[in-house]
């Protein structure tokens, strides 16, 4: 019979949705100011985003209801935040991403890189990291990981199979890709003429160690794909949600900023950071698993996205229409609206809009100014120390919540902190935006981590801690 706790757990989402707004009511009732009303909305959305009691996109729509109800902003002022220039930029970037996926451009890039770099484990890992990071600059981190993980594991399986076949035929180990599994029964191999020959004494590596190497390399490949997807998204403004949240909130909070955060300026700042992070991640994964062996940006994005609906996917010509015999038809375009409608993550558009609405609400209600005034004692602390503490806090928070939700929640507060202690807002907001994308430690931290966790036979300890010297090779590849 179900216990009381089991019933409560089964209905936890309903309890949070109905009970939390009531429990937080003393704040706007006892402090009847616009600042308190805005704080009530922020706290409520933060709890809903953390617990996922409601879908993230649905939670992001709460300002449309609460801000007009509490007199913070008019409905027309809130709603316009949900499809501003930054959201249009994101929408245009998604059109390009869907076109890349729909026409399998990512597979062509990946295979071309593999033909160039070969199959040495270290270079193979680097090649997949470069391709994944490049794709993640233009499409979502989740999509780039979902595209590359099947390719990576198919390559691993093919290389392992080729190594075994070569060993059986030639009676020797493969020095280039030593991940093969061979039977150690009597420690013998066979030539094509069926004669049995003992293995050379110097090559008597145990089967367990060989399986161990293969297992660790598979783990490294899984982690390199999801990590490089998160890192690659840092390089461009459309690469990951927190970057767009930063641009939208800077434009909202500081309308006279002369468009300081745009596609070109962000790329000039973030691309070198991405290269450094990618190199350091590659080195770290080698140590752990292989050893030392125009106009506005939104206008441009929509323009490029519309081109995808115009350009033919094949050489222009006329072919028979299979659906209408006797009729001719031209080649299909690179993208069509049916594909866009099926693959467009509309929920992220609403999630971004919710963050922009929060930022505007903080400004209009006066909560930003109030919070900044309360934090003036922090002026005595070193700015670099403040930034380090805030980055660690954001990085820890994003391990448990959506990257976009984390950035949407923290950036308005960080802007207030910076103004309160007389720092340039970007000095605090930019590094914390980068930190919001660096969710590496938990499978639930970001969708790329979850995808790799399900593919690569990983455990949580493999992501949070350096691997032990002897990792069990018998764990099944599918995460339980």
UniProtKB/TrEMBL annotation:
Keyword Transmembrane helix: yes
InterPro entries hit by this protein: SLC13A/DASS (IPR001898)
Compositionally biased region (Basic and acidic residues): 182-195
Span list, region Disordered: 164-206
Domain of life: Eukaryota
Its membrane topology: Multi-pass membrane protein
Stored Pfam families: Na_sulph_symp
Gene Ontology CC: plasma membrane
GO MF annotations in UniProt: alpha-ketoglutarate transmembrane transporter activity; fumarate transmembrane transporter activity; sodium:dicarboxylate symporter activity; succinate transmembrane transporter activity
PANTHER family: SOLUTE CARRIER FAMILY 13 MEMBER (PTHR10283), SOLUTE CARRIER FAMILY 13 MEMBER 2 (PTHR10283:SF82)
Name of protein: Solute carrier family 13 member 2
Organism the protein comes from: Rousettus aegyptiacus (Egyptian fruit bat)
């Amino acid at each position: 019979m179900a216990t009381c706790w089991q019933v409560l757990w089964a209905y936890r989402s309903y309890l949070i949705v109905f009970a939390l707004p009531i429990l937080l009511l003393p704040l706007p009732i006892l402090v009847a100011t616009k600042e308190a009303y805005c704080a009530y909305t922020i706290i409520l959305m933060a709890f809903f985003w953390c617990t996922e009691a409601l879908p993230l996109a649905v939670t992001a729509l709460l300002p449309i209801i609460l801000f007009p109800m509490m007199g913070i902003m008019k409905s027309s002022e809130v709603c316009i935040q949900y499809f501003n220039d930054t959201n249009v930029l994101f929408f245009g970037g998604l059109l390009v991403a869907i076109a890349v996926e729909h026409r399998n451009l990512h597979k062509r890039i990946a295979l071309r890189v593999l033909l160039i770099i070969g199959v040495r484990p270290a270079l193979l890992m680097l090649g997949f990291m470069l391709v994944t990071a490049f794709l993640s600059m233009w499409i979502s981190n989740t999509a780039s990981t979902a595209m590359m993980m099947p390719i990576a594991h198919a390559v691993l399986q093919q290389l392992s199979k080729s190594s075994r076949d070569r060993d059986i035929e030639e009676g020797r180990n493969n020095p280039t890709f030593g991940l093969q599994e061979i039977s150690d029964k009597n420690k013998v191999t066979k030539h094509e003429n069926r004669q049995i020959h003992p293995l050379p004494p110097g090559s008597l590596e145990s089967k367990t160690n060989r399986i161990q190497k293969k297992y660790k390399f598979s783990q490294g490949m899984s982690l390199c794909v999801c990590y490089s997807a998160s890192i690659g998204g840092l390089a461009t403004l459309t690469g990951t949600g927190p970057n767009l949240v930063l641009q939208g909130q800077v434009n909202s909070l500081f309308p006279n900023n002369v468009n300081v955060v745009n596609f070109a300026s962000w790329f000039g700042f973030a691309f070198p950071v991405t290269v450094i992070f990618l190199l350091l991640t590659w080195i770290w994964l080698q140590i752990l698993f292989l050893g030392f062996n125009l106009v506005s940006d939104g206008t441009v994005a929509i323009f490029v996205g519309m081109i995808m609906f115009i350009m033919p996917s094949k050489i222009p010509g006329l072919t028979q229409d299979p659906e209408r015999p006797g009729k001719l038809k031209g080649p299909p375009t690179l993208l069509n609206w049916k594909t866009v409608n099926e693959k467009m993550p509309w929920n992220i558009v609403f999630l971004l809009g919710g963050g922009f609405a929060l930022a505007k609400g903080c400004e209009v209600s006066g909560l930003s100014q109030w919070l900044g005034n309360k934090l003036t004692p922090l002026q005595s602390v070193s700015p670099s120390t403040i930034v380090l503490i805030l980055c660690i806090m954001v990085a820890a928070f994003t391990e448990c919540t959506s990257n976009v939700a984390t950035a949407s929640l923290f950036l308005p507060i960080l802007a207030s902190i910076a103004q309160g202690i007389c720092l340039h807002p970007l000095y605090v907001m930019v590094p914390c935006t980068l930190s919001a994308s660096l969710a590496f430690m938990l499978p639930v931290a970001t969708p790329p981590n979850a995808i790799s966790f399900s593919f690569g036979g990983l455990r949580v300890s493999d992501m949070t801690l350096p691997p032990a010297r002897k990792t069990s090779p018998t764990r099944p590849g599918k995460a339980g």
